[in-house]
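Teaching note: in complex prediction, the entire set of molecules is handled at once rather than each chain in isolation. The prompt given to students was simply: 'Predict the structure of this complex.' The entities are:
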Amino acid sequence: MVPTSYYVLLSAILFTIGVLGVLLRRNAIVVFMSVELMLNAANLALVAFARERLGVEAQVIVFFVITVAAAEVAVGLALLVSIFRTKRTADVDEVSTLKG
Amino acid sequence: MELILFLVTAVVAITGAVAMLLARNAVHSALFLLLNFGAIAVMYLLLQAPFLFAIQLTVYAGAIMVLFLFVVMLLGAEKVEDAPDRIAWQQPLALLLGLALLVVSVVVGLGGATTPPPAGEAVAQFSDPQSLGALLFTDYLLPFEITGFILLIAVVGVVVLNQRGRKI
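The expected output is the structure of the full assembly:
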């Protein structure tokens, strides 16, 4: 059996890569992908803890996280498309005003 | 045996994530992220969560990544980062803070209890999809209903945001 701490370690590494993606990249779509990576890292830690405690509740929470992430991606990408339509760019540096 | 499988999958997951971060083309980023999601799905299988394995593959690898690829190709926004960064000190600062976050999270993650993971018959049985479904429709019924509502709002929101010929 693989110890739970190994999974937590992997989760921490993936989460950090996600944070770096949000901070370093300026393509809004890649920033979005990095957010998804962070959500996945958190899910992995939750599932690892679920096995440690032999509880199914954490897996239910992961199920909810995945559902909300799907809704978030749909709305976020719709926002991106509508920003792209008015500004003709997906660079987050260019999108610095609230006015459409 | 399980440890070898874990290590190989972990290497694949980290490689996919780093390659997503470094790829210049957004389509390549999306495909590397798909690799990472697949590796995490295998992790769920190793952690005795077969239902989440299926959900991860269908919802994340199937639906969400297809949506990403579709939007990247629809917008033609594969490469937008040709101009230099507007804030010059942002990248080194981000690397520094990311490293600090990694150190802190690893220390906290490894500093917890170090009991050996449970083994045997109980582990193989605690999380079959049946018990997950029973929990979802009894104790977590209200959150489950709210999730459905959130999905409905997302659908309505996407339709409203992408209406043509009408300013919101």
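Point out the following to students. Residues 10 and 69 of chain B are 24 Å apart (CA to CA). The radius of gyration of chain B is 21 Å.
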